[in-house]
Amino acid sequence: MRTADLTGLPTGIPEALHDEGIEELYPPQAEAVEAGLTDGESLVAAVPTASGKTLVAELAMLSSVARGVPEPRSDGSGELPSGSTGGKALYIVPLRALASEKKAEFERWEEYGIDVGVSTGNYESSGEWLSSRDIIVATSEKVDSLVRNNAAWLEQLTCVVSDEVHLVDDRHRGPTLEVTLAKLRRLNPDLQVVALSATVGNAGEVADWLDAELVHSDWRPIDLKMGVHYGNAISFDDGSQREVPVGRGERQAPALVADALDGDDDDDQGSSLVFVNSRRNAESAARRMADVTEQYITGDERGELAQLAAEIRDVSDTETSEDLAKAVAKGAAFHHAGLASEHRTLVEDAFRDRLIKCICATPTLAAGVNTPSRRVIIRDWQRYDGDYGGMKPLDVLEVHQMMGRAGRPGLDPYGEAVLLANDADTRDELFERYIWAEAEDVRSKLAAEPALRTHLLATVASGFAHTREGLLEFLDQTLYATQTDDPERLGRVTDRVLDYLEVNGFIEFEGERIQATPVGHTVSRLYLDPMSAAEIIDGLEWGAKHRSEKLRALAGETPEKPKQRTDADADDAPGGFQRASEMVSTGDGGGSDDGADDSGSGDGADNGTDDEFETDQTYPTPLGLYHLVCRTPDMYQLYLKSGDRETYTELCYEREPEFLGRVPTEYEDVAFEDWLSALKTAKLLEDWVGEVDEDRITERYGVGPGDIRGKVDTAEWLLGAAERLASELDLDSVYAVREAKKRVEYGVREELLNLAGVRGVGRKRARRLFEAGVETRSDLREADKSRILAALRGRRKTAENILEAAGRKDPSMDDIDESDAPEDAVPDDSGFETAKERADQQASLGDFE
DNA sequence: TTTAAGTCCCTATAGACAGCATGTC
DNA sequence: CTATAGGGACTTAAA
Fold first, then answer.
1. % of chain A surpassing 70 pLDDT
2. H-type alpha helices, A575-693
3. What is the mean pLDDT of residues A465-475?
4. What CATH architecture does domain A3-216 belong to?
5. Which protein residues have any CB–strand C distance under 7 A?
6. Bases in strand B with any atom closer than 7 Å to a protein CB
7. Does any strand B atom come closer than 7 Å to the Cβ of A702?
8. Which nucleotides of C are covered by protein (CB under 7 A)?
9. pLDDT on residue A592
10. Fold (CATH) for A538-754
11. Which CATH superfamily is domain A223-435 in?
């Protein structure tokens, strides 16, 4: 089918497609159009990655927008209806990163009158603004949240596209997608649903659920050769072989990477994507691959790579960042969730630009933004799984997704996906298990209690159902209902969940009728797991009840303090817990650890947390609040590594009065373990708000810079929710919660809160200003300009922006000389650095001891 | 003597959505 | 209840 023959699209679109070089539809796309895609027909397209799914979505959305709400145009003229009579399309993505990718893609239709908007947790276009958009891109959670908050424009939707719909199989996030689709269809029964799926076993079942036509195809625009490397050759699925000798002592993966770079017969340099099963493996593999790729980079590339490496170092001053930069300088990289998102983007972009020749990645990359590669090497096909209790083979679907990354459009004649085997038996098994195998069926995970807890409350709160029967009737529209062979099960779980929700005061019964309580409504709108909300409420109320007793306990600890502070000015570890961890793992150099943060001020009066107990008697304490939100199911906790158990057990006893709730006894094994991992996570947050350096935090907790951001974001969100709950329940901890939240938001100690709220001032600048004697917002307005300029290291423009943001009348820094600043205003930079060096040196000395 | 290869033991284990109100160094 | 790769420390074999 030719694009020129397409009907029902807005004026100019077929021509535009033609100009883009799309003259002929791919077979699956043509099939979709024949199935009625552009006439508003619902459709499930189960096709491989990179086989033109996006165009299928675009055709559906554009034609739906053109067709409009009232009546389908029969003339097929495609004249775009003016203004609000046009249809409205929603594109649901599984990841935030994909939302911006898709938005950028769809924006090329703007010149044809199609407005595109995005809505994710990060990047929110206000609800009103969205209602004027023709195409809206959002994550499934955001859509769910919009439904809960009754976003008016949802009712105007004429078309919904669900990308990667096979993710309804996901234990954690699948139910949200499933329920959201069911709700959208219920809001608008005529809704066109276009579901894009990987090739899965039961695509037909998914189509039945959505009352949709099915297009199922293995066709792909670039051929994919799948094979297994064993010995000195790859055996491909088409029967062909490729010699790739592996020298003695050499490993398979580097040999394959080198082989791809050697190319076939031209000077074509093939990039490789190596999938491994852990972050550490990704990093060490990248280190090895860098020695391979280094031999293939040209002089020009060397310079560009050096620059890229510098950009990477700029993102974050951590070991991860440094290791990545080192690999990148040689043309290789690693990629995993511990990276800062800027890191990821830099690596992905450079790989697409063919600057980076090889990425060693955890499975993140397979699900993320589009990063095609000449060769995909799946080094590890098993992964540790705690629930399973050992190494578990990857799902076929997952492996297929990875393999689908092979083949760069326009660059490669075909893509190659290679699994690695050490022996003939494994080779045969890999062929059986992954290459010849069809992907697993998609199975709904909706009947799991945690999923229903959230969604039943939301369903009641947003008025989709008012009785148990109503709920079951609603649930009957989900994929789960079409799949289950035990129809009773849903009813049983529903009853248990309703019971839970009632006991915790989120819903109440009036005879048959179920209603959400005011708190229940809030919880639903805040997008909290009801269990998290219950934990938070319990914790805050428990704290209110035990307040005076705990305050006394906290005060009772003071006698020991002065002594500890003199021999160790560790700002963040009241008590000697850090000492225990030194010996076990971190090798941190004694008390001068973090000395860098203190050295500037000298007077020690800013030693946040512990002083509070003595002077302000703040309760609940920040640590108590962080621990509270860290133990909710909405927070992903840090692992306890070896040695951590004793470290945090000790800390747990020291900080016992701060916890908001009863500490489980050590005999309650699982509960105690959870309590400790929550404590570890809370401690990370306490370090963060204690202004501990990023690299020190990553070192101490064994996390990457991206993990810190993630924990901080989540904590901020949960503390925001806690604040709302506290104010709604009229608890006087609201203020403490708000402050703890603000400190997490800015990553600063209490005394910097006032400064850090100013636009342009973050944790670092705030500290510099404070040390220079500029301690508050009003100081910014009144203090001597030379003093401020000196504190900001002479950055005039920055200083002006900051002063303006602080509301100073005359922010101009012209004619101001930083050297005019009084002696005490100049940040003691050398001291700053030497203190840090000293700390680092001692840390490395510690490693030898 | 130097270097490569082999062995033993220990350790650690993927990912990332959401409220609200505005902006890091 | 389930496994395995990597790295360091060390030993052994070859040059």
1. 86
2. 577-581, 595-599, 608-614, 622-630, 644-654, 669-689
3. 95
4. 3-Layer(aba) Sandwich (3.40)
5. A 251, 276, 280-281, 284-285, 287, 379-380, 382, 384, 388-391, 422
6. 4-6, 11-25
7. yes
8. 1-7
9. 35
10. Sec63 N-terminal domain-like fold (1.10.3380)
11. P-loop containing nucleotide triphosphate hydrolases (3.40.50.300)
Q: What angle do CA A430, A434, A436 make, to 5 degrees?
A: 100
Edge-to-edge, what's the strand order for the sheet holding A358-361? Answer: A241-243, A233-236, A223-230, A414-420, A375-378, A272-275, A358-361, A332-335
Q: Which of residues 67-126 of A touch strand B (CB under 7 A)?
A: 95-97, 120-124
User: How long is the CA A383 to C1' B21 vector, in angstroms?
Assistant: 41
> Quick check: A547 pLDDT over 70?
yes
Nucleotide nearest to A95 (CA to C1'): B17
What residues form DSSP beta bridges with A236? A227
CATH of A449-527, one of 2.60.40.10, 1.10.10.10, 3.30.230.80, 3.40.50.2000: 1.10.10.10
Q: How far is CA A551 from CA A404, A605, A618, A751, in A?
A: 59, 21, 8, 22
What number is the average pLDDT over the span A718-725?
A: 96
Q: Which residue is nearest to nucleotide B6 (CA to C1')?
A: A249
Q: CA at A248, C1' at B6: how many angstroms apart?
A: 13
Model pLDDT for residues A396-411, shown as the tens digit of each residue = 999 999 999 999 988 8
Tell me whether domains A223-435 and A538-754 share a fold.
Answer: no
Asked if residue A79 has pLDDT above 90, the reply is: no
Residue A430 neighbours by CB under 8 Å, 6+ apart: A228, A381, A419, A421
Give the mean pLDDT of A29-43. 96
Chain centre to alpha carbon of residue A833: 33
pLDDT at A317: 87
CA of A715 to C1' of B10 (A): 34
Half-sphere exposure for A270 (CA within 13 Å, toward CB): 26
- End-to-end, the C-alpha distance of chain A in Å comes to 73
Quick one: which of A762, A754, A819 has its CA closest to A780?
A754
pLDDT digits (tens, 9 = 90+) for A516-532: 999 999 999 999 999 99
User: Which nucleotide's C1' is closest to A285 (Cα)?
Assistant: C6
Q: How far is the CA of A755 from the C1' of B13 (A)?
A: 41
Q: Would you tell me how many other CB atoms lie within 10 Å of the CB of residue A534?
A: 21
How many Å from the CA of A849 to C1' of C10? 19
Task: Flag whether A29 is marked binding.
Answer: yes
- A379 CA → B13 C1’, Å: 16
Taking C1' of B4 and every protein CA, the nearest residue is: A249
Q: Which of residues 122-151 of A touch strand B (CB under 7 A)?
A: 122-124, 139, 141-142, 145, 149
User: Which tens digit of pLDDT belongs to each residue from A127-147?
Assistant: 678 888 999 999 999 999 999
> Positive or negative, the Cα torsion across A340, A342, A343, A348?
positive
SS3 (DSSP) at A531 = helix
Q: C12 C1' – A613 CA distance, angstroms?
A: 62
Assess whether the previous peptide bond of A705 is cis (omega < 30° from 0).
no
3-state secondary structure of A365: helix
Q: For residue A557, what pLDDT is reported?
A: 56
